[in-house]
Specification:
Blueprint: E1 10-14, E2 19-23, E3 39-45, H1 52-55, E4 59-60, E5 71-72, E6 85-96, E7 99-102, E8 112-118
Antiparallel strand pairs: 1-2, 1-8, 2-7, 3-6, 3-8, 4-5, 6-7
Bound molecules: S-adenosylmethionine.
Organism: Candidatus Heimdallarchaeum endolithica
Domain TsaA-like: 6-128
Keywords: S-adenosyl-L-methionine
Length: 143
């Protein structure tokens, strides 16, 4: 087994009427030209699920389904996984200093942010080309 070093570059901040990523000052220069993009991928640490029990999970039950399915952890977005890495595509609203204001994110306040990458045209796939298992049928209309 190999181990790799990952460092936190900032954190998610959820306030009453705004949501933003607060980058550590050291990494602020890394935001240069990000204002030319309007969607980004945020990679974050699912910090409250960083436990030996959650990390040992290889099967999971995707939540909010009409049917009960036990699926492989790599076939779902379970927060309990060997490496608790969260990935969310978000819309950038504005950038002020070391803060990237975004429309929403499914991470809680204070969640460590690991990386940010611009969303590019090659990242999207037309909906009718996406193959999904039947228990995710309800996601087909989701943008
Ligand atoms: C199912 S995970 C999926 C995350 C990401 N969209 C992905 O696909 O990798 C999202 C859920 O993780 C939970 N969550 C958010 N931030 C968390 C944190 N820091 N630690 C543990 N759980 C968290 C919330 O309940 C949220 O609804």
């Amino acid at each position: 087994m190999s181990y790799f070093k990952i460092q936190q570059i900032g954190k998610v901040r959820i306030e009453e009427d705004s949501c933003f990523i607060e980058l550590s000052k050291h990494y602020s220069p890394g935001l240069r030209h990000l204002q030319f993009f309007n969607y980004i991928f945020v990679l974050w640490w699912i910090s409250m699920r960083d436990t030996s029990k959650d990390r040992s999970q290889v099967l999971a039950h995707p939540p909010n389904l009409d049917v009960e399915v036990e699926t492989g952890v790599f076939a779902c977005r379970s927060p309990a996984r060997p490496n608790p890495i969260g990935l969310t595509k978000v819309k950038v609203l504005k950038i002020e200093g070391n803060k990237i204001f975004i429309d929403r994110i499914d991470a809680i306040d204070g969640t460590p942010v690991l990386d940010i990458k611009p969303y590019l045209p090659g990242d999207s796939v037309p909906i009718d080309e996406i193959k999904l298992p039947e228990w995710f049928d309800h996601l087909k209309d989701k943008k």
